[in-house]
Amino acid sequence: MRPRRYAYDYLTGKTLHSGIALMHVYDVPLCVHAGTGTDTHLLPGTQALNMLDRSRKGRHAYASTFRWRGVGHGQIPAQSVELRAALLEYGWNEPIIRPLLTGTDSEAQIQF
Question: Whole domain around residue 19: which residue ranges?
């Protein structure tokens, strides 16, 4: 069982059907903040809803901001550690966290 699913089951007392996905509200894979109130970061939904949410947020494979595209397997843990460190230091600070999630560099020059 994945950590986010365990956290959801444990904190809400609801065991989800295997066909139900848990969607991250803030798109932070390391986050397992589940709860019973409006402060939860995990919401149950269908796989179709999860894919729609993914597309709307630009996380699908063809999105220009998909952060794992072209990243070697060796780099993924380093990016996750960098994201975790930033979250611990700054909390959910959108201007700092969003570039780490999307793999964009706000300081990079526009090529055309």
Answer: 1-57
